[in-house]
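Deviations from the work plan: none for this task. Representative record:
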Amino acid sequence: MKEFHAFRLEQVDQVVNVIIDRPEKINAMNAAFWQEIREIFHWADQERSVRAIVLSGAGAHFSSGIDLSLLSETAGQLGRDVGHNTELLHAKILELQSSFNAVANCRKPVLAAIQGYCLGGAIDLIAACDMRYASADARFALKEIDLGMVADTGSLQRLPKLIGDGVLRELAFTGRHFTGEEALSIGLVNRLYMTADQMMDDVMQIAATIAVKSPRAIRGTKAMINYMQDHRIDDGLDYIATWNAAMLQSNDLRIALAAQMSRQAPDFPD
Amino acid sequence: MKEFHAFRLEQVDQVVNVIIDRPEKINAMNAAFWQEIREIFHWADQERSVRAIVLSGAGAHFSSGIDLSLLSETAGQLGRDVGHNTELLHAKILELQSSFNAVANCRKPVLAAIQGYCLGGAIDLIAACDMRYASADARFALKEIDLGMVADTGSLQRLPKLIGDGVLRELAFTGRHFTGEEALSIGLVNRLYMTADQMMDDVMQIAATIAVKSPRAIRGTKAMINYMQDHRIDDGLDYIATWNAAMLQSNDLRIALAAQMSRQAPDFPD
Amino acid sequence: MKEFHAFRLEQVDQVVNVIIDRPEKINAMNAAFWQEIREIFHWADQERSVRAIVLSGAGAHFSSGIDLSLLSETAGQLGRDVGHNTELLHAKILELQSSFNAVANCRKPVLAAIQGYCLGGAIDLIAACDMRYASADARFALKEIDLGMVADTGSLQRLPKLIGDGVLRELAFTGRHFTGEEALSIGLVNRLYMTADQMMDDVMQIAATIAVKSPRAIRGTKAMINYMQDHRIDDGLDYIATWNAAMLQSNDLRIALAAQMSRQAPDFPD
Amino acid sequence: MKEFHAFRLEQVDQVVNVIIDRPEKINAMNAAFWQEIREIFHWADQERSVRAIVLSGAGAHFSSGIDLSLLSETAGQLGRDVGHNTELLHAKILELQSSFNAVANCRKPVLAAIQGYCLGGAIDLIAACDMRYASADARFALKEIDLGMVADTGSLQRLPKLIGDGVLRELAFTGRHFTGEEALSIGLVNRLYMTADQMMDDVMQIAATIAVKSPRAIRGTKAMINYMQDHRIDDGLDYIATWNAAMLQSNDLRIALAAQMSRQAPDFPD
Amino acid sequence: MKEFHAFRLEQVDQVVNVIIDRPEKINAMNAAFWQEIREIFHWADQERSVRAIVLSGAGAHFSSGIDLSLLSETAGQLGRDVGHNTELLHAKILELQSSFNAVANCRKPVLAAIQGYCLGGAIDLIAACDMRYASADARFALKEIDLGMVADTGSLQRLPKLIGDGVLRELAFTGRHFTGEEALSIGLVNRLYMTADQMMDDVMQIAATIAVKSPRAIRGTKAMINYMQDHRIDDGLDYIATWNAAMLQSNDLRIALAAQMSRQAPDFPD
Amino acid sequence: MKEFHAFRLEQVDQVVNVIIDRPEKINAMNAAFWQEIREIFHWADQERSVRAIVLSGAGAHFSSGIDLSLLSETAGQLGRDVGHNTELLHAKILELQSSFNAVANCRKPVLAAIQGYCLGGAIDLIAACDMRYASADARFALKEIDLGMVADTGSLQRLPKLIGDGVLRELAFTGRHFTGEEALSIGLVNRLYMTADQMMDDVMQIAATIAVKSPRAIRGTKAMINYMQDHRIDDGLDYIATWNAAMLQSNDLRIALAAQMSRQAPDFPD
């Protein structure tokens, strides 16, 4: 596997742990980060040996969000014409968004494991994952408001699917910190663990559970849930009918039924 | 009232209890089930003496989901041409979906009362109901993933309106069992009861409360909430304005006001 | 500041407290109320010295909802032609809706502070606010159903963004009272306080916290969250990219960064 | 084939000509019409020997639209309560609409052949067909406006896909007659013929041409064009990709390629 | 009737002719224009004696579009902060758009009568009307491109409903002039007249024809066609069913039927 | 500039002519074609010296559509499991679609110049262009139906924006050939020329006209028209307001005004 500057990858059977690996910088998202995450998730999307992905941060914290040097670097590219600057910034923002879209659109489940700080852009990132798990020491904040700006890499777009509208507004307007406990109670994370180690053990275990399911059914299920974030119920019913009309002819259903009868674990091909 | 093979109906005043009645098969959904449920809910939709519907299961369990014999029967109808099979399966899936659409589109409130197992297709069914209530022994699972397939009769379309996105994905990807307690905490059910009997008593009571309201206002309220699952806020405001512009000329408002003044229960016509 | 009949305004620094001020009528929403609230929120939207708004009720209760005399007055204007009446009522309902749209579309955050009764139309009102806070004695009810009518000023349109579908239907169909405790557990309010005084203190404090943020970033954040109530994720990402491409050229980002470096509070212009 | 009161059916090979057969009443749409058309198109949708449908009118005219006796009959069912009447009329209108939805949703192409009068409801009907052809003597009018009402069975919904917005408004606001010539120039009909006989010959010929194509590909093409009337381009591309991923595995592609090589007409199974 | 600076109004029976009245400036749209047009169309929307509106230009030309002095005036208000400027311009553009929205949303039909130049903003204006008629000397151009800017007051939003996508792009990218003849052939105008006088006579006649129809049915028809510019067919069918369920109880249907029987002109109340 | 296998590029000033260059194969779309077209349009999108693009075919014909060898090659990759095949074909179709999306999403105008055959996939391609021009000898056909399949690379998605629904269905169901004359009359092409040479001269000239406009305004105009293919009018108005609020601060407006005053051609920077 390729070497990365901002990430380290560890694969256990069919689960790959994608680790943000700049602990000395609280895993701040620098230029390498934004480009490599796109590359990694495109790879994971295509790589047959990968069936589930865990996303975590090296060291005491998940991530402190975007590296401020990136912002000032971009500021340095601005010229005197507002029109020119606007097109340049527009392209830049779309590029950053595409990095997290690669996570959201990856056809395989992505589980975020969060300890310590998870701030600003890190919230945009975990909002693009399928599920989120945290340790008790996790500290979250939508801190873009304290930079005098509107968050623009996905949190305001994806959090409304995850947490209530009222609490989202309070968190986005105030930028206040909130704990793993509160994250659990508002539905941002699925489960809270005493320690980061316990969290990693359990999250890797959940990922392993998912990895032995039919990969085709997992991909289809994720595609369908993603689809429903933006579509009507009648469109969704029509879409799954069209999809399953083909997929129910695959061998996976037969493999599953045979396994149930023989009371053995099914073995689904990639 | 007509006789059914998979159901039994009991009417108390203006509430009808639609009971899945194959306890010896854990109320598995066989061919008769899928056809009769459509018939029953079309009848309930039209029948003026019915103002609220409770949906429950006979015996120790609500339902174990689709009868696997149905799947193998359908498999037996497949031929050698993929195109032909696909059209056949497409029509079949749309037909199954229409059974639960009949529940969702019934103009009268449907309250699901759930004890014991509520698995696979049974989740699709309760997701099409208006409200869900469970006893402490309820056990749920989106078990389609363990059949190597994507759920296709409504759970992935309707659950996103009921429970958080993150927990939905975990349940759909892992297919793990979850308790009534968890169902309550994630918002899948409105209330949890110690025993199935207590549940039935209270659910019938809630249905009776609804049944004495203005039937027209109840139908309108359900229509509006259904509408908002798929439409913009401005469209919804426009729609209710058009609706109420006519309906506020009905007698129901007058009956309600007169009843409040005389401190007597209002008596709304069917 | 202008005098109002149904309201009283108190401004503390950049926070204005909009107080429904008919305590002897349990703050029932009369003709003056519906017109003045529109006027007040248009003013607050434009007034540069206002950066956050608290909406509260004078006396022991937030509001008992629409003043029934308004309904009978409208009934008195109806004639013999159904078509004529329908157009008249349609225009009337759109007018009432526009009063609460003025709250929802006000570009500045609106925090509702709720004690005592919050019934019928009052629920429609708080659903149009950004956040909701309540004291322990708060009592809520979607009581329109007991008037034999469908709620038509926004609760059925906006509550689905705030609370779960199942519990919404139960509350809308039964019209039953529910406590602040339940309002908190279903996500209708963000926080519960022992007393109304404690609530007011804290809500004014939260509003003050918001008022010192960049007004431009606050407006943008509210616009974006409002936008996501009705739009697809890809549209939302595109929209914020277009917005921020211009706004990131403003001084607010520089002010924020300078303040962080100097460890002083930033001072954002209106 | 069953006997009908308002229709006569003639089948030539795989084309069925559905003839409105009340020439003495200018083919006015009476109660039998509205119910039988639904029945006929459901049958044609399912019947394998039918691959294309021509819809025409017996005698000198296509149809004068809804039978006014139907309107007065419905008026006779109205009672004293506006709410009750509104629900009754709402159900009635939805029922009429479902008759023309059966035409629009029939999975097989429907070609309208129009001579003489095509007025009011008859425009709603031809708007639900796939293609329209007329003889030189055809006379059209959206005459609902002269009944003091808004057209409600589909013309205002479907004509915007067929003709320009500006001309549609003129025709709908004035209710003026327009000729086959104008119908051709605004795109309402595909082709104009000197006589009704020439029209029938050619339309039957076009239908016969369609009937020898792959029925599966024809159904898919119609489904896709219908889909695009209501959906985004990106959704449409995704949908056809899902559909064709299955259908390209069918034998039809092989049959077509073999026929092209052997320069013989392909023979597609039903 | 009030005096206006940029307009003159002439009422003939129930038709009002709204005349842009700055012929010495080729009817360029100055500050007074943008504010008064909003005022006039709000008045016409509410005024019962007005049933149809003709929009025309005094002198030899319809209008040369926005007055360039308005642009430079706005430019003069810009300051040094891009964020501040952006908010100011955003508000300004929305305000200009609202002037033409007042035309599009006016519940009564608006007929544009166009002679001579119809350039830039004048195209945005006629695109907001219901129908367009031109004399042979009319000259059109989407000339915003030659100002180095994107048209922002409605032409790019509304023209796609009126003319084909391919020709729209050519006209918008090149900004070239096109004649009344071409405007007719691409569907932008409904009819072409030899002279402006003939045009005015006929357009006033068409407006008069519309003015004797049922005002309620006209308003409903316009509302429905407007609705279909943005909504699905199924939503449109549902909406008209809800609307007509009330409106068919009005007297207009009876008045129309009685008039047809007595072969007299119906007399619909305002 | 890079060498291509299926294409040849010629640049004249700021216009690039992208020529499909396999005349001996009637410019059939082979594997190289599908990959290179994506590459070329990504390049043209980014390359500052390119401001308008002409797309044409070398030799006597524009293109005969997809190379059938591509279809058989794909067929050769299919295995025994329908599920596996379906996923493989799904990915393949999305890949082909992305080639034409690169044309549609290229931020610069694309003008198709069509002579001779333009069949099957070639129609999907020209539908993704901004404008289409043809010579008198052009011959079109949606011939996918004669391959027993539904067109899946964009024609059914994009043609409804270009030509009427009724004629589209006839062409798609029959697969019949149609001439340049008919293409002009139904609005598929903007203009018809006697010879291919005259066409190329004029199309290059139109492209040159576009190339001297403000590139930023051209890009914005294309973005806006693309946006309106999928969005509501109110969303479009909001979007252009947000866009122009920034862009009106650019120098292009000033350059344009100065040029108009000095009666010289403006010189817009890239």
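Chain E touches chain B through seven residues (CB under 8 Å).
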